[in-house]
Amino acid sequence: MPLVLGVSERTVMEVMGWCTTSMAARYQHVTDPIRREMASQVGGLLWASQNRNETETETGS
């Protein structure tokens, strides 16, 4: 659930009393909505960069 809420792993570890990232990995799971959101964010970064480059080429900047 913390991943869905966007809570940092470090915060979750503190609240749950986990001292290693392996504990967090064991009990936190990446769901399909999280995968889709991450893919959308990465895609936005990639396409935004390409669009900026095209605009700069067209305007001569």
Can you describe this structure?
With 61 residues, this protein is mostly helical. The chain has 2 domains: 1-29, no CATH class; 31-61. The chain is built from 4 helices and no strands. The mean pLDDT is 77.
Number of DSSP-assigned strands:
0
Write down the overall mean pLDDT.
77
Secondary-structure element string: HHHH
Domain count: the total is 2
- As residue ranges, the low-confidence spans are none
Rg from Cα: 18 Å
Number of helices: 4
Give short descriptive properties of this protein.
2 domains; 61 residues; mainly alpha
Could you write a compact summary of the structure shown?
This protein is mostly helical. The protein has helices at about 1-5, 10-15, 20-25, 30-60. The protein folds into two domains: about 1-30, no CATH class; about 30-60.
List the helices and strands and how they pair.
Elements: H1 2-5, H2 9-16, H3 21-27, H4 32-59
